[in-house]
Amino acid sequence: MSPRGSSQRAHRREVLAAATGLVGAGLAGCLGLGGESVRVLSAGSLATTFEEYIGPAFESERGIDLRGQYFGTNTIVRLVEDRTKQPDVIVGADATLLRTQLDSVIDWDVVFASNALGIGYNPETELGAALDGPDPWYEVVAESEGLAISDPDLDPLGYRAVQAFELAQHEHGLDGFKEGLLDSVTVEPEEPQLMAEVEAGSVAAAVVYRNMAVDHDLPFVEFPPAYNFAEPSRAEQYASATYTTDEGTTVEGRPILYNATVHDAADSPDAGRELVQFLVDNTAVLTDAGLTVRDGLPTAHGAVPEEITL
Predict the structure, then answer these.
(1) Among residues 88, 26, 31, 77, which one has the least CA distance to residue 54?
(2) Looking at the structure, do residues 197 and 149 belong to the same domain, yes or no?
């Protein structure tokens, strides 16, 4: 069964089309106007991370303006494939997805951080107050309304939410849990807006990455390792949960890994490589933003340019 809202595909496509032209005027605005710049097309979950943490620090250290636009990683793939967008740097929330879907324009990437999945919530709402209590999250959300997820057909955060419900159902022996939740959740098509909706009280809670709750200074209930997608050692377990998008692509559950690369046809490839190097060198900036830099990161995939040292 698809999440509620799947009957509104045409509306969502209209939102997507509008977003490609308008997102730069809102949250995804540029940080500076003069001098050298680097254009970034990034996973929506990193919008605040780039705008408020990485961008200002990068501009201060390197003198290069970061101009970002933010979408679900699935949407990024589509925008690059059809040449609607040609950024200097591409950043995804599912390393495997970028490698397999954009191999015509990228031949290397660097994994620089990871994250954890859970529920960010507004404690002033009825559902939020219940999540503050002693009962397990899965009992609370099964008995309440007000939970939101991002669109699983547009970004990894959305399909990881669906996969987490499936894994939680198995882990806790909850018959019908996944299908019940998918009948009641609200689907938000614009990933960067998910926690803004929670903060405003439009929805009570949302399945998000840890850094997204940190961005809005809201409480976060992290899922257990069995389905928080934060443990590389549990990759086989995560892979047992799958999601098939509306375009027919079946995606297995995978550990959350953010990767960055420079587009083969970048207008500012040197600045792009400088940004990737900055992500490698400045782990404190990433952790301050709520990301995790585990032992073993960063890691290289493919023929990483010699200008980038890990």
Answers:
(1) 31
(2) yes
Q: Are the CB atoms for 160 and 117 separated by under 8 Å?
A: yes
Read off the CATH number of the domain in which 164 is found: 3.40.190.10
Say if 185 falls within a structural domain. Answer: yes
Using DSSP's 3-state secondary structure scheme, residue 303 falls into coil
177 within a domain of the structure (yes/no): yes
DSSP bridge pairs for 94? 257
Does 217 share its domain with 130?
Answer: yes
Q: What does the pLDDT look like over 34-91, one tens digit per residue? A: 459 999 999 999 999 999 999 999 999 999 999 999 998 889 999 999 999 999 999 9
Are 121 and 224 in a shared domain?
Answer: yes
Asked if residue 15 is part of any domain, the answer here is no
The rounded mean pLDDT for the chain is 89
Predicted pLDDT at 10: 35
CA-to-CA distance for 185 and 203, rounded, in angstroms?
10
Is the bond into 192 cis (omega within 30 degrees of 0)? no
Reduced 3-state DSSP string for 162-193: HHHHHHHHHHHCCCCHHHHHHHHCEEECCHHH
Residue with the two structure tokens 């408020």: 52
Under 8 Å between Cβ of 197 and 203:
yes
Instruction: Give tens-digit pLDDT for 263-310.
Output: 999 999 999 999 999 999 999 999 999 999 999 999 999 999 999 999
> Measured between alpha carbons, how far is 194 from 149 in angstroms, rounded to an integer?
8
Report the pLDDT value the prediction gives residue 192, as an integer from 0 to 100: 82
Under 8 Å between Cβ of 109 and 301: yes
Question: Does 216 lie in the same domain as 90?
Answer: no
Asked whether residue 4 is domain-assigned, the answer is: no
Q: What kind and span of H or E run contains 286?
A: helix 283-288
Domain range for 183 is: 117-252
**108 and 180 housed in the same domain:** no
